């Protein structure tokens, strides 16, 4: 996923799904509703649905206050999402259709944001969009021309991404002018949070990603099924951040569902219970919460205001042995066993080159490696090692079997308290996000949107 996140998390609740086109001349179909009407809409007891709709026809275009969103706009933006999920061929057709409708909703919101910026006489210069495009291209090690060619090869375009950048910058500036000046945070509020942090020193904090799907009580089974389909796609290799950006109805959707670091008491009870039972990198099943379902991913966890051993910085030597193409477990076993026995004889990094020579291993130095940045299984191994010891072998026949030798460790200092300014900014951001959500809801309510 190309991350264009900002201080303001702007991709909020999506608009309503596409409505059916009624054909007045078609036959009349009667439907009786016996349950009480709790909607507050004063609906009739006997509902007659006029017309018919071919479920195989979906025209994903719209006109938003006179601005046309074409099928090409939807296809090109969808291509960015598919690229983030491993490519077009890895996403089932049914999933693509669901993504297509969500992309259309996001484009409608984006159009409303750009229109509101124009109404406020807020402009985003082309030079600023070009600078952002250049930064995004640099993140994937391409120049702007190469990046444009890459986007085209994925079925998207540079113009589609430029419009997304324009929408996000424009919306940030709208919020800066129309929302942020009216958000107040008192010194007493910040000091109260600092006091609570100090009181909870040593408690567990979780770094969590969330996808929230809203639902009415009647639609909960369908929403749960939708959540399970999303989980299935993520477990098959889809990007959690991409799905959060397209499907989540929380204000964190614009930053890939990232909630940041939170303590259990800051989460709904259902999410706190699930997080406490999860390991790093795990994905939860659908969790019923007030108003819908949440899917959470546990990115990491730590102790509040306490040094985490996984923040230690290591100096390592990596030994690697490789195998000819077509090798099997049986044919490779003697070499792997010899390698395992050899690395366990290492007593200090000064002996690494000598041992590597005896087993035909390559050696690479790796300094400044944080334990936290290693895969979870290697984190556990490295935490147990003393200076000069080697890890157990790991890897595969295709990519090589490796071992890490610990040559040095810089242990972390005690975690410092968050500053007054950091806490102030977090509170302010949360309040801006909530007001932004209402702002966009009002724009949707007042918009003239014609689905084509």
Automatic annotation (TrEMBL):
Instruction: Answer whether the UniProt record assigns the keyword Cell membrane to this protein.
Output: no
Q: Which domain of life is it from?
A: Bacteria
| Record's signal peptide | 1-25
Q: What is this protein called?
A: Parvulin-like PPIase
What's a Gene Ontology MF term here?
A: peptidyl-prolyl cis-trans isomerase activity
Origin organism is: Sphingomonas crocodyli
Gene3D superfamilies xrefs = 3.10.50.40, Porin chaperone SurA, peptide-binding domain
Q: Which PROSITE patterns match?
A: PPIC_PPIASE_2
Q: Which UniProt keywords apply?
A: Chaperone, Isomerase, Periplasm, Rotamase, Signal
Start and end of every PpiC domain?
Answer: 203-300
Q: Which InterPro entries match?
A: OMP_Chaperone_SurA, PPIase_dom_sf, PPIase_PpiC, SurA_N, Trigger_fact/SurA_dom_sf
